[in-house]
Amino acid sequence: MKKTFALATMAATLLCAFPIHADEKPSAVVAPVKTQVAPPNLAKNLPDSAMWQVFEAVTTELRSLRPQNLPASALVNKYNTFDFSASTKQKLFNVFGTEKSVHIDAKLRADGKIDLSVLVDALNYVDPVMNSTFQWAPIISNSSFDDRFRQVDVTAAMPWFSIADKGGLTVRADDISYQGAQSSSTHGGWLGKASVKIGSIDVSDATTAIHGAAKDFTAAFDIQQREKFVDIDYQLALQSIRWDKDEIGPIRFGIKLNNLDELTMSNLKKDMEKLEARKLPDAKRNAEVMAAMKKAGSKIITPLSSLDIQELSVVYHGFKALVTGKVSLNNAKQADFSSFEKLKDKLVAHFDMEMPMGLAEEISKLVARRSLEQKVEKGQVVSEDAVNQTANLLLTQTIENLRAQKMIVVDDQTLRSKIDFADGKLLVNGNPVFSPPPKASTKK
Description:
Layout: H1 2-17, H2 50-63, H3 72-80, H4 86-96, E1 102-108, E2 114-120, E3 123-127, E4 132-136, E5 139-145, E6 151-165, E7 169-184, E8 190-205, E9 210-226, E10 229-243, E11 246-261, H5 262-278, H6 282-300, E12 301-316, E13 319-329, H7 340-344, E14 347-356, H8 357-375, H9 384-404, E15 409-410, E16 414-422, E17 425-428, E18 431-434
Antiparallel strand pairs: 1-2, 2-5, 3-4, 4-6, 5-6, 6-7, 7-8, 8-9, 9-10, 10-11, 11-12, 12-13, 13-14, 14-16, 15-16, 16-17, 17-18
């Protein structure tokens, strides 16, 4: 499963990596399947995958097309005359069956902006290292930007994508799209909105007959600048997840980071671009990336920064569990960010949690049924009466235990809890849960 997730992540990155556009609708011609003898003990070694190698080679060379203080007409000519290196062409041929599988076209508009289109051919490739078959329809995108690359609009689409593992696991995603409208901040960072949407995701395993499906996934962010600060709004949403005969959803996760330092974020972006340009070995590059992020982290967060948990919610059988909250700093100074020990006493957090009694009942039935099914002999059916009795007992005992510990409050068929953290102390419904031991005296 970890391997499939890595491959799916790579495919999603592919969609967002190319500024793509096509004037004509491409024909869904599928490249011939290429097979090789699988090297031993390399199934988990992603860098040895031809798919990963061609992805890295293509994206690295496409990055050289970023505007570099050239007039718009010169940029258009640079795009239209671009050709991959011989090494990358060979990698493309090995995977796609042709070295001409990425098509780039640029046009200069009357208003001075550039329209750039890139089309990535359809794919049908058996990767012997990953022991998986990759397939997708042509990837298409439109982008437009000025010659200084300070305003960029991008739309991209992948009609469908699938990975079929030789072990029987298949993952397919349909109606994948990306849309973004970004501009440059005061010091060169990115502002604006972007979103990725996936219409459906299906997972099946031929060896176990397990089938799962997710519908209408959306990931979106909005970055806005206010004077010397930046606010970032993240939103994740999933309409439903279905497995076997059960279903959960909608699921929503929304947070907002407030008052981040714009200058530090912009400088970090520039540092990342310089690191990419150095073409370091993976291990060294990753180490330097982590070092740069750690160095910038304590400066990006300011004494005025805060985190709003706008919504963390899950719906199951019509009942919705909800968490909201806020994390902020009280009288913090920039020097406090040098260590957690200094910062923790300045942290202030509040969370509200609620769950309908109906949802607690549904979860209790689910737990009870699985527990009883593990105890009966294979082929025997667990009765609904047994499930209900076990679920009622489990729920009653759990609620009584939590109420006795003052961890929950029952309010009109809703279970509620308020969590607060301030001055290094944790409170649940106003009651202390844990207090740090007093500091040892230094007096003799």
